[in-house]
Design brief:
homotetramer, Jelly Rolls, 5-stranded mixed beta sheet, FmdA_AmdA (chains A, B, C, D)
Chain lengths: 336, 336, 336, 336
C-alpha cells in the first residue's frame, strides 16, 4: 500500500481550480493523508473575528492541492474514495457574511436593503461523543447535534483552459457543499487536463441542506483519501457512490437547473447501468430517487440525485471501483 | 369520537381550491374517512389509456371536498392529521405526459423541441408486503420498491377571492407533492375563508423527490383524517409535523424561491418556538435542517424545510395539537 | 357607431379576473368609454398616505369590468383596440411598498432583511405639454419626462374555472405592466368563458422597463377602447399589434420563462403568418425581434417579443382586425 | 494621435479572458485598429459547414487580444470607445447549434428531448445600402433588415486569478451580446489585473434581443477602438455610455438576477451622479429606464439598464471620458 502524507504550508494553499501547478504527484492506488484548513483559512477563532475583517478576498475557501495523478488524461475519470474525514481541532465556527447566504440579497440577487448583521458562532466539537455543540449568541439556548463530517469542496482542473475560484461548483466539481460527501463515499470526476489536478478543502463538521446562512460548521480536517483512475471512461458531472447508493450532481442557477442536471445524469447513468430504455429509466428514477440539496448559497447552486443501487438490481459502476477502494480503505484502516 | 365517512360521486369531485360550495360540514375533533380518486380520475388503466386521450383538461387531479369546518374563520389555522392513507386498489399507474415534467420543455419553459413520447406504466400494489412493483415497458427489468403512501394535494380555499386549479401549489396548499405528507403527519393550513373549505386528493403509493417525470405512482386512496382548529393563530404557508420533526413548505418558481420561503418560515417559526433571536435561529436551521424536495414539475415548485424537534429542545407547536390528534388517531385505530 | 360609456361606482370595482358577474354587456364593434381608478384605489394622494396604511389587501389594483362580449365563446379571440388613454387627474403617484419590487426581498424571494422604507412620490401631470414632473423627496432634484400613458392591467376570465387576483399576469392577461400597451394598440386575448369577461385597469402615465420599484407613475384614466371578436380563432397568450409591429407576451417566473413563452409564441405566430418553416421563423425572430421588458415585480414576470411587420413582409394578422379597428378609431376620434 | 493596427494570426486568437499573456501593449489615448474573426473562427461558410462538425470545443468565439494597457492597475477603470465597427466580408452567417439557444434544452437546462436540427443560414451584407439580407432555407421568403454592427464580446482579465471561457459574460465583461455595444459607445470595465488585458470579438451585423436561437448575424469585423484609463475609480460591472444615455449591465442566471444587477447598478450610479438619495434614484430609474435584453442563451444571461442622461439633468460620468473620446474619434475619422 502506497501512502503519502501532505500538510500544506499556508503559502501552498490554493484558491482556484486550474491555473496553478501541482503541489505533488501521486500514482493511482495511492492513499493520501492530508490536512485541509477551514474556509476562513483558520482566521475566525472568536466572536470578534468577523470574516469581512480578518479574511481578504479572494483568499477564501482554501483547498489543499492540486495533486497530479500520474497517467490521468482528458477523457478519463478520477476516483477519490474518502476513507476518513476527521475534525483537526476541538472547535469549529460558522458565521453570517454580508450579502451572502440564501435569505439575504447578494451581489447577484442584488437588492437595496442593507446586509444582515455579521455574526460569529463557535461550536465545541466532541470527537469522542460524535457531536457538535451549538450555543446561541443571544440567550442561553444550547443543543448538541450529531457530528457528520464532510468536505464542501473537491474537484479537478476545469476544461477549456479555465481557472475557477474554489467557491464555485460546476462540472469540474468545486464547492458543491453536499453533506453526501462523507467518509465511505467514492467521488468520480471527469479529467480535463493531464494529471487531473485534484484538490480538496472546506471541511464541515455538519451542514444543513442548502447551507442556508452561507456557512456550515466549518472546520480544519485531517482527511484520508484513496486515489484511483478509470482510463477511457468519461464522467460529465461529479458522481458519488456509497455502499448502498449511486448519486449524480448538478451545479447551476436557477436551482431547478441544478436539479435537472443531476436528475438527467442519474437517468442516463441508470439507463447505461441497467440497459433500461431512457424513458423507462426516467420512470424508475422518478419513483425511486431522492434529491438531497447541496448548496443554495454559492455562485452556482448544487443538487444531488440519489438512488439505492438495490432499485437498479445492484449494478457495479465504473467496473467496481468503489468496491475495490472500499477494500483498500479497510486495509488502510486496519494496518495504520 | 365523531366519525364521518364520505365517498364522492364522480360529479362531486372538485378541480379547484375555492370557487365552489362545500360537499359537507364537519366539526373540529371529527375523524373523516374519505375516498380519493387518482390524478387521472381513474381513467388510465392500461397501456393504451394515454392521458392526453382519456383525460380532458381541466378535469385533472380531482380532489375530494371541499369540507366546511364549523367555526373556522380567516386568521385561524386548520389542522389535518393523517391517520391512515391506504391504496384503494391493487394497481397504480404512472405516465409521461406531453410537455409536462422536469426534463422536458413545458408550456412555460417553452421550447421548439417535440414532446417526449407519452407512455403509461402500471404498478402492482402489494398491500400485505408493503411494496409496489415496477416493470419496464421495453425489456424485462422489474424491481420492487417500498410502499410509502402519501397525498400530493391538500389545501384550503385561497385568500383574496381566488380559485386555483388543484394542480397548483401555493400558500393555500394545493398540489405540493411532498412525500413527507404521509400517515402520522399533521398538516397546518392558514384559514382564508369561513369554513376553511379543505379538500384532499392525488394519492401516491410512493414518489421520488421532485416527481421528475411529472407523475408519481398514482393511486386512489382510502384515507382517514382527523380535523382540528386552532383559533386566532395564523399560518402563512402550509406546515407539517410528525412525531420527531417540524416542517415548513414553500411553493414558487424558481426553485430557490420555494427553498427560500420554506427556510424563511422554518427560521421564523423556530425563533418563535424557542425564543431564539432570528439570526440565532437562522444559524441553527442552517446546520440542522434538511430540505426534502417536493415537486419540480407543477405550476409552482415545492420545497420542504424539516428539522428534528430535538434540535429545538422539543417544543410543542400549536399548543400540542399534533399530540392531541395522535391520541385521537390511536383511539380511532384501536376502536374501529 | 355604437358607443357605450361606463363609470364604475367604487363598489363596482373588481379585484379578480374570473369569479364575478359582468357589470355590462357589449356587442362586437362597440366603442367603450370607461374610467379606471389607479392601483391604489385613489387613496394615495399625499406623502403621508402610505399604501400599507390606506390600502387594504386584497383591495388593490382595481379594474373596471368585467364586460360580457356578446357571442364570445371559448375558442374565440377578443380584440381590444385602445383608441385613447388619458390621465383623469393632473397628478399621479408612485411609491415603494414593503417587500414589493425587484430590488428587495419579497414574500416569495423571502429574506430576513427588513423592508425598504415606504415612501410616496407625487407627480404633476401636464396633459398639454405631454410630460410628467418627477420631484425628489429628499433634495431639490426635479425633471420632466414624457407622458406615455398605458394600462398595466387588461385581461379576460381565466380558463379552468379559476379566479385570479388582478395583480397576477398569466395566459388570460392580467397585470402585464408592459409600456407597449398604449393608445393605438390592439390587444388580442383568447376567450375562456362565455362572454369573455374583459376588464381594464392600472393606468400609468409612464413606466420604466420592469417597474423596478414595484409601481409606475400611477394614475386614474379615461380610456376609450373598441371591442371586436374573432370567431373560431384561438390565442394562447396575449398578443399586441400596432401599425408597425406584432408582439407576443409571456408571463411566468423565472424571467427567462416569460422570455421563452413570448419568443416561442412570436416564432410560431411568425411561422403561421408567413408560411416559414419553424426553424426559419426562429432564425428570423432571432435577428429581428426586440424584447421589451414588462414587469419584474409582480407575482409573474412579463416579457414582450416584438417584431416589425415589415420584416415579415407585412402580414395582416387576425384578418386585418387591427386595420379595421384603426378605421373605427379614426371615425370615433373625428366625430365625437 | 497614437494609432496602432493589429491583425491576429489564427494561432494568436484567444479563447479565454485571463490565463494568457498579452499580444500587445498600448498606452491610454491610443487608437487601436483591429480585426476580429467571427464566433465560428470563420469556418462556417456554407450550408454544409455545420458548427458541430467544423468547429472544435473549446475553440469557439475567438477574441482578439489581450492587450496590456500601460499603467492600468486593479482599482482603475478601463474605457474603450468604439469608433467604428465594420463587417470585414460581404457575407455573414447564423446557425442553430445542438442544445444551445433559448428555445431548446441545453447542457444546464438539461432535458431528455433530442436536439433541434442544426441549420446554417447565410446572409448577404450590403455595406453601402446598410442592410443584411435574410433568406429562408426552406422556401423563397427573403427580407432585408438594417445593418447595425456590434461586438458581442468585450472584456478584461477577471479578478481572483480566474480564467473564463470567452462565451461567458460576468463582472469582467465577456460575451454580453448586447446590441447596445455599437459604434459611438464607450464601454467602462473595472480593472482586475495589471495592464487590464482587454480583448474584443464576436462581431454581429445585427442581433435581436436575447439572441434567442443562440447566434446572431455573425461576422468578422474591422473595428477601431480608442483606449483610455480612469485611475483610482472602480467599476463593479461593465457600463456603457453613448451621447444620450448611460447604461449598466448585469450578467447572471436566472434572468431576473441579471436584471437586478443592472438596475441596482444604474440606481446606485444615478445616485452618485446626481446626489439623489438612493430611494429617490430608485424611483427615478423605475419610471425612466429601459431594460434592453442582451442575451438569454449564454452561460450567464445579460441585461442592460439604460436611462437618458437628460433625465439625470445631464451628468458627465467618469470626468467626461466619453466626450473626450468622442473628440478623439472625430479627429481620427476626419484625418485617417
Amino acid at each position: 500500500m502506497n501512502v503519502v502524507s501532505y500538510q500544506p504550508a499556508p503559502e501552498e494553499l490554493s484558491y482556484t481550480f486550474g491555473g496553478r501547478p501541482a503541489v505533488g504527484r501521486v500514482r493511482p492506488g495511492t492513499v493520501v493523508e492530508l490536512f485541509t484548513e477551514d474556509c476562513f483559512g483558520g482566521r475566525v477563532r472568536g466572536f470578534g473575528d468577523l470574516p469581512s475583517k480578518v479574511c481578504e478576498f479572494p483568499y477564501l475557501n482554501p483547498v489543499t492541492g492540486p495533486f497530479h495523478v500520474e497517467g490521468a488524461e482528458p477523457g478519463d475519470t478520477l476516483a477519490l474514495h474518502f476513507i476518513s474525514i476527521e475534525p483537526a481541532r476541538d472547535w469549529a465556527v460558522s458565521t453570517t457574511f454580508p450579502h451572502f447566504g440564501a435569505l439575504t440579497g447578494t451581489h447577484t440577487t442584488a437588492m437595496l436593503q442593507p446586509p444582515l448583521d455579521e455574526v460569529v458562532w463557535l461550536y465545541e466539537v466532541d470527537r469522542e461523543k460524535r457531536v457538535v455543540r451549538y450555543q446561541a449568541r443571544r440567550g442561553d439556548f444550547a443543543v448538541e447535534m450529531p457530528l457528520d463530517p464532510m468536505h464542501g469542496t473537491v474537484g479537478v482542473a476545469p476544461a477549456a483552459s479555465e481557472a475557477r475560484m474554489t467557491i464555485t461548483p460546476d462540472a469540474h466539481g468545486g464547492n458543491m457543499d453536499t453533506p453526501e460527501l462523507r467518509a465511505g463515499v467514492t467521488v468520480y470526476l471527469g479529467v480535463n487536463v493531464d494529471g487531473a489536478l485534484f484538490s480538496i478543502g472546506d471541511g464541515h463538521c455538519r451542514q444543513g441542506h442548502g447551507e442556508v446562512c452561507g456557512t456550515a460548521v466549518e472546520a480544519a480536517m485531517n482527511t484520508v483519501v484513496a486515489v484511483d483512475l478509470i482510463k477511457g471512461v468519461t464522467t460529465p458531472w461529479p458522481r458519488l457512490e456509497d455502499d448502498l447508493h449511486i448519486m449524480s450532481t448538478g451545479s447551476a442557477r436557477p436551482l431547478e437547473d441544478a436539479y435537472r442536471i443531476s436528475q438527467h445524469d442519474l437517468v442516463t447513468w441508470t439507463s447505461s447501468l441497467t440497459g433500461l430504455d431512457e424513458l423507462d429509466a426516467y420512470q424508475l428514477v422518478s419513483q425511486g430517487a431522492e434529491a438531497p440539496v447541496g448548496n443554495v448559497c454559492d455562485t452556482n447552486y448544487t443538487m444531488v440525485a440519489k438512488i439505492p443501487k438495490a432499485y437498479l438490481n445492484t449494478p457495479t459502476p465504473y467496473a467496481s471501483t468503489h468496491t475495490t477502494l472500499r477494500t483498500l480503505s479497510t486495509h488502510y484502516l486496519t494496518t495504520r
